[in-house]
Amino acid sequence: AEAAAEYSSGSVGIVTKNLPEVAVPKDLAVPMLPFQKEGLAWMCHQEDSDVRGGILADEMGMGKTIQAISLLLARPLKGPCLVVCPMAAVQQWVKEIGKFTKKGAMRTLVYHGSEKGKVATQFKKCDVVITTYQTLESDYRREAHKHRVKCKYCGKLFMPEKLAVHQRYFCGPNAEKTKKQQKTAAKKAMQSMGIGNSSSSSSKEAPPTITNIYRDFMKQAGVDVKAKGYWNVMKETRDRLQEKSSSSSKAKTSEDGLSRERLNLLDKKELTDLCAKKGLDSAGRKPELVDRLMDFAVTGMAEAPAKKATLAMKLMTSVSPKAKAQAAKPGSAPGKKRPLLLRTSPSGSSKYQGVSHVKASGKWQAMYKGQRLGSFASELKAAQAVRDAAEETDRSESKKGKAKAAKGSAEPPQSRNGLARTVAQGKATATGSKRKHDEMEGNNYEGYETYEGAQLDLSESPLHAIEWARVVLDEAHRIKGRTNSTALAAYALQAQKGYRHLASR
Ligand SMILES: [Zn+2]
After folding, report:
1. Angle formed by the axes of helices 64-74 and 34-48, to 10°?
2. Tens digit of pLDDT for each residue in 284-307?
3. Centre of ligand 1 from the C-alpha of residue 150, in Å
C-alpha cells in the first residue's frame, strides 16, 4: 500500500507510463496493482527489444515475483522457463506460483539436491524449473573441470590457459620463483644467521616464531629483549635503541627526521617555514608541502644511513641483512643504486609502493611481489624494506639474466619483470596482493575460466544442455563479479529471453 501511495504521488513512475498496456493474464489468480501492470508492460517491451530482457529492480515488497510470474503467463513461449534463485527462496517461489496462478496453469519442478538427476529428464514437460545458484554453479563446474589438465610439476589441475600462467610464473624450473625456492631460500638465510641450528640451545627450546627469531637477532646485537609478544618486543627494542642512540650520539637524526604523522600536525605556516628552512620550495597547499618534506626526508636519509646505525638498528630496518652486506661490498653492484623509494598512486594509504597503513595497529606494512616483509613503526622504514627487497630481486634477476643469456635463451626478461611488478603493485594491501596472486596461481576456485575463452562442452550439464524459453535470475546481485564461476555458469545458459530479477538492496 505504501508503495502504491508512493507510486500515485508520482515519485516512482517513469516513462513506463507511456508503454502500451498488457492485459493481465487470465491464469493469474490475484489482481495486479497499477505499478505491477506497468512493470509487466515494461518487461514485455524489453523482451521485444534487441536486448531481449532487462533488470527489474523494484523495491522490496513491490512484488517482483508476481510481476515475473505474470510475464511468464502473459507471454507463453515454447519450452520451459528457468528460475535461478538463492536456496532460501526456492520454497517461496514454489509457494507463490501456487498462490498466484490458477491450478494447473504452471507445471513447476525444483531441480536441486541429491535427487536432482532424476528430475533432469522432466525439464521439457514443465513450464517452470526452479534451481539454485549453487546447483547451477556446481553443474557448470563439474563440466568445466573435465577440461582441466595436470601441472606436471606440482600435480594440481588447471584450465589450459591458467596452466601456462602457472608454469611461467609460479611453478616448475622455468618459473620466476617457485614457492619451494622461496622456502629453501628462507631456510638458508636462517641457517646462515645461526637460527634454528641444533647447537643453539635457546632456539632448541623456543619455537622459531617471528618473535623468537627477532629476539635472537637482538641478543646477537647486544640488546636483551625481555618483553613477550611481537608488538611488545618491537616496542621495547625501539625504546631501548632510542635510549642507546640518544646517549651515544648527539646527532639525533631519527628525531630530527620528518615523519608524515608529525608533519600532519603542523599548520600551513609552520610547514612553509620548515620548507624554507630546508631550502625547499615553500609554495603550495598543505599536502603538497608534506609530500615535499617527506621526499626530502627520504632522499636525505638515503644518503648517509650507515653512519649512525647500530647493528641492531640495521637488523630492524633491513629485511635482508645478507643483501645489504652484499651491497656494501665494494664493486658488488657497481653503480646500481636505487636511492628513491618506489612511489605509488595517490589513492593508496601510503605514498610508497607496497606499503600500506594498518589502521588497527597503527603500523606500516611492507609487501613486495606478494610477499609480506613485515610491519614497521614508520612509513619510511616500510618503504625502505620494500626497496631493499626490490634491490635484492634486481640483483638476483640480473644474475639470472646473465645465466640465461649465456644459455642463449630468447625470452625477454622485461616481460616477466612487468608482470611481477603488477602483482606487487596490485593494491598494496595484503588482501589485494594475495588475491591477485591467487587468481594468477589458479588458487581461486572462481575465475578459473574466462567467459570469452569459454569453449566448453556443457552437453552433460542438464541446465546448460537445453535452450530455455526464459531465464529469470532472482536476486542476481548475489552474483558478485563477472568472472566468478557462478557468473560464468549463468552466462553459459542458453535462452530465447532472459531477464534478471533483482532486489534493489
Ligand atoms: Zn605446478
Report:
1. 50
2. 888 888 888 777 776 554 333 333
3. 8
